[in-house]
Amino acid sequence: MKVLMFGWEFPPHITGGLGTACYGMTKGLVKHDVEVIFVVPKAYGDESEEAVRLVNASDVAVDLSTEESKHYWDRVQYMEIGSNIIPYVGPEEFSKMTGEYIHSSENFKSKVFAQKYEFSGKYGLNLMEEVARYALIGSSIATQYEFDVIHAHDWLTYSAGVAAKETTGKPLVVHMHATEFDRSGENINTDVYEIERNGMMKADRVITVSNLTRNIVIERYGIDPEKVITVHNAVEPVDKVDGEQYQKQVKEKVVTFLGRITFQKGPEYFVEAAKKILKRDQNVRFVMAGSGDLLNKMVLRVAQLRIGDKFHFTGFLKGDDVDKMFAMSDVFVMPSISEPFGIVPLEAMRSNVPVVISKQSGVAEVLKHAIKVDFWDIDGLADAIYGLCHYEALSKTFIKYGKEEVDSLKWEKAAKSIKEVYDSVYIKTI
């Protein structure tokens, strides 16, 4: 079976969990005899192609004089929208855009309609322009390759997937890694919501990364439960990190938050719990690794609480730096307000770090050997962290059984379930 897959990022050029998940997924699919043509907005030339054939959308020319292109674009809205719905983007990277523009192929002169278009592949100022171009290119790419099923990841690529389906008649599977409700709470951007809903409505199957997300898709988007399938994420095995080389240089326990510093991830609860713990014990250091629109607010709050001498901000980490951070950590914390899944706790556990996660996370559905608390329960969060830092028997138990548990959560197993989803729609088209 051959799959045309639309993504937004691919290792080593990633800014969040989406690229990591796509990489593990494609490697798993290869083991089930699935060939993947993976399309990204911009390829840099150093991506791993051991499991995929990578297509650089920046190299794809579009002939806008064709009736096919005009017909597609006349039914597409192109919009500029506020940064609150843009994943992975901080205020220093994105100036808020206002207004809404609806254009047709007869009067729209944007460079989106240039024959060739150079994508940045980022989550920055021109994101919606790039999403619009990507949708247009989805239709063109679909005519250039042979494939059986289309697979689109998250709202950024849904329109490209729909365009490919409408051009070829091939079945479409969309993958919901995070909904607009996860990113923005109840203050959603209705335009992005409609992109998500339209993609799922037109898809033959919707894959969600957890039952938590599945319920949101069904209840908040009105998607038929019969076509929504949960496939939990997994984690890639990693070469053993040299713990001696990356030993922490401080005597205190190290507690780590690693993720986007945004509303969704609940960083403020981590800071408030840190203050409570430091009132009881000064021999603990806290690390907030990541970037995001709440970073400045968190730095200010740490200063207000007068815990700056015990609190460290590292900025965004990826690749080996993540493994090095875990090698120096005694506890990992993910206090997410709404986490569709959450791969990072699995990465921590495979590095022998015990974890505290929120009950409002998809990964809580598959993990037994993790301490789970409500994200808003700062006292419970502080007690859990304190216990893992101070009771060696407790920590060792979670490390031992957690490592065994996460080692069984392989992408090969998740990919088998995804292949079954492909089979269910492919058989219908034969």
Q: How confident overall, as mean pLDDT?
A: 83
Order of helices and strands: EHEEHHEHEHHEHEEHEHEHEHEEHHH
What's the number of helices?
14
Structural class: alpha/beta
* Order of neighbouring strands in the sheet with most strands: 3-2-1-4-5-6-7
> What's the main sheet like?
7 strands, parallel
Number of domains: 2
Q: What gap, in angstroms, lies between the N and C termini?
A: 13 Å
The name of the CATH superfamily of the largest domain reads Glycogen Phosphorylase B
What's the CATH class label of the largest domain?
Alpha Beta
State which percent range the strand residues make up: 5-15%
Radius of gyration: 22 Å
Q: What is the architecture of the largest domain at the second tier of CATH?
A: 3-Layer(aba) Sandwich
The CATH topology label of the largest domain is Rossmann fold
Mind explaining what this structure looks like?
The protein has helices at 17-30, 67-73, 127-142, 154-168, 180-184, 190-202, 211-221, 267-280, 295-304, 320-327, 344-350, 378-390, 392-407, 411-429, and strands at residues 2-6, 35-40, 52-56, 149-153, 172-176, 205-208, 228-230, 253-258, 284-289, 311-315, 331-334, 355-358, 371-373. Strand 11 (331-334), helix 11 (344-350) and strand 12 form a beta-alpha-beta unit. It is built from 14 helices and 13 strands. The two termini are 13 Å apart. The longest helix is centred in the last third of the chain and has 19 residues, at 411-429. The radius of gyration is 22 Å and the shape is elongated.
